[in-house]
Design brief:
The protein has 79 residues and is an all-alpha fold. The chain has one domain. Helix content is 46%, strand content 0%. It has three helices and no strands. α2 packs across α3. The longest helix has 19 residues. The chain is elongated and about 60 Å long.
Length: 79
Amino acid sequence: MKTDDKPENTNYRDEGCEFYYSCLDCPYARCLLDEPLIIRLHKERDLEIKRRVREGEKPAELSQSYRLSSRTIYRILSE
């Protein structure tokens, strides 16, 4: 008798991604990892934010100009 090798009998860990902590609770309609353009745009935005901080801009100013929370700005800076 053959054992069931189907994926439904596998224990998956829901580790989420850099955009959200959990795949199962993610608020996005489509997985952002399936959207290469979005990922590229986020990486370019993050590099721009880091450059602007190095040049002396304050995180609060960047939060307003990019319409992001302060927490998101600090997360980007900590990477």
